[in-house]
Amino acid sequence: MPETGPKDMAARLAELESRKEETRHAGTDRAVEAQRAKGKLTARERIELLCDPGSFQELDALVRHRSHGTGLEANRPYTDGVVTGFARIDGRRICLYSQDFTVIGGSLGEAHAEKIHKVQELALATGVPLVGLSDGGGARIQEGVVALHGFGGIFRRNTRASGVIPQVSVVLGPSAGGAVYSPALTDFVFMVQKTSHMYITGPDVVRTVTGEDVDHEQLGGAMTHATRSGVATFVAPDEKSALEDVRYLLSFLPSNNLEEPPSLPVSDPPDRSCPELRDLVPTRANQPYDMKRLIASVMDDGEYFEYFPHWATNLTCGFARIAGRVVGVVGNQPQVLAGVLNIDTSEKGARFVRTCDAFNVPLVTFVDVPGFMPGTDQEFGGIIRHGAKLLYAYCEATVPRVQVIVRKAYGGAYLVMDSKSIGTDLSYAWPSAELAVMGPEGAVEIVHRRELADATDPAARRAELVAQYTERFTNPYVAAERGYVDDVIDPADTRKVLARAFEMLASKREDLPKRKHGNVPL
Description:
Layout: H1 6-24, H2 29-37, H3 43-50, E1 57-59, E2 82-89, E3 92-99, H4 110-126, E4 130-134, H5 145-161, E5 167-171, E6 174-176, H6 181-185, E7 188-192, E8 197-199, H7 203-210, H8 216-220, H9 222-229, E9 234-236, H10 239-250, H11 291-298, E10 305-307, E11 315-322, E12 325-332, H12 343-358, E13 363-369, H13 376-381, H14 383-396, E14 401-410, H15 411-416, E15 426-429, E16 434-436, H16 440-447, H17 449-454, H18 458-473, H19 477-482, E17 487-488, H20 494-505
Parallel strand pairs: 3-4, 4-5, 5-7, 6-8, 7-9, 12-13, 13-14, 14-15, 14-16, 15-17
Antiparallel strand pairs: 1-2, 2-3, 10-11, 11-12
């Protein structure tokens, strides 16, 4: 029998290292140069930027496609165009995959899809976030329906993991056709200006079918999806910034739905006074101010990571901390359309509230809402159905919820913005709060229509009646008498009050009736 020993093992290890070296350089030099010419990083460079140094453990590096009779037999690089594995971000475990455009264009075939399926299942089984770095040419045409079947498996696993683990999609190149639906099914979508594109059909198909002349950036660029379609949650100027933002986002989220969000030591005193808030709300009711100034003033160290900062900006949402505890913030933005609720803000708010509720993030809602947006465009577009999504999301939420009424709280929009009647745990109001069915001017026109018609000086009488209505109804004290507001507070005490409220509510437990699932008004 031949002898075995260190020499044989050395040879085997040399072969292993040779193969591993091939996996690390699976793309050709020409393909890598083309990637860099577009201002893009390679799949492995992205992983290095995203993860804690030295923490990435690759899986399935030696996988190759097994497609025959398609013309791909002579081109079987290791990894099959996607790098998968697990790592740590800020010391916390994650699973991830990173598509490699330098290997068969990052296209998805059977083996490529199976690698993603495996890491999705690992993330779900271990209860850790999944981060997908997308940069591929869609379904691998040569593999036909096999590739499509692979996409279907990804979608099904995205859906099964929804609300169980955070799922983050980072689109760093093209994403077309069926490939766009995995990011759409995840919790957060990051895109990069100029290099990220998403669309169902590309510019050439659009031009052929509809005659519209549009380029890649106009049709599916980052800012298109950030400002118009509501697909891109976050946009970054470059890949490095995008990956830094992913790390920052995950610092606000638990690893799964059975854990609490991570708390941090805080140097910002929880009982810190905010005297600047006393002058925030203008004396005139129709004057705007910046709701984000209020949020920054109240939150730990002024930090606020805004969700969809470029879309539906008459509502601001985002993550912050109070006394070290993570909170989800929702607030009407008077600087944009007076903070009115419309179709887009209803969808944005509903998705954010449901995301926070899924991952045990308490909610604070700052209210300054004049109502729902009127007009045929809104009504024909389904403002009733879309507005009901936000209402449903709040009514369904079981996390600690606190409402702060800053100024206007009119009509059905007041109810929808997490009022006491739909289940908020604690409701506070500033002295400037105005709780009413509608604004004074509109109310007077309806209630005193006949009197105004008969008045000798309608303008003077109208002004008198508006003043009376304002004095009687547009204040927080009627609501406080009824218990619809738990307290009227000095604006300077807002941070202290919220810190105490969330400390009290930390042990809140609420069970919903058993059911398969609710029927959201989609």
